[in-house]
Amino acid sequence: MDAYADFIEEAGRGSFRAPADGGWTAEQIVAHVASTNEQLIATTEAVLAGHDASFDNREATGDRQLRAYVASYGGLRGLADRVAITVAVLRDLTGQLGPLEDTPVPTRIQEGDRVMLDGPTPWGRVLQINEVQHTGGHLEQLRALREDEP
């Protein structure tokens, strides 16, 4: 399974219903993933440059920020394209890390009220968590909003 490719494909299909539970719309989910990827890119570039780096995903979770991000990419198709671009950059940068993947980076990952990670973490591990757990989890959210699903 390639969580990134599967996510991009699902997002690009469109036809999502509104969330029944008041949660994020498909557009907000895709905006969150794209925005998080942008933050990961910036942090990875800092690690590669030997600069102090940290990561905190809370900036990519606020409703106001997500609405603005959705608007800046013109909706779901533009957002899916943005995720594809950020994934290509992340994959390239990850390939450049080599031994720097073990660099401990102060990291805070929060989903809703749940703090998933809070402390120095090897940067390569954070990137792996993003692809497998984070993006994979949001892929399942998108699939749950599929209009042709019961």
Description:
There is one protein chain. The chain is an alpha+beta fold. It has a single domain (3-144), classed as Four Helix Bundle (Hemerythrin (Met), subunit A). 59% of the residues lie in helices and 13% in strands. It is built from five helices and three strands. Strands 1-2-3 form a three-stranded mixed beta sheet. Strand 2 (104-111) and strand 3 form a beta hairpin. Helix 1 packs antiparallel against helix 4, helix 2 crosses helix 3 (63-72) and helix 2 runs parallel beside helix 4 (76-97). The chain is globular, with a radius of gyration of 15 Å. It starts with a helix and ends in a 6-residue tail after the last helix.
Write a concise synopsis of the structure shown:
The chain contains five helices and three strands; from the N terminus they run ααβααββα.
* Poorly predicted spans: none
- CATH superfamily, by name, is dinb family like domain
pLDDT averaged residue by residue: 92
Element order: H for helix, E for strand: HHEHHEEH
Protein name: DinB superfamily protein
InterPro entries: DinB/YfiT-like (IPR034660)
Organism: Rugosimonospora africana
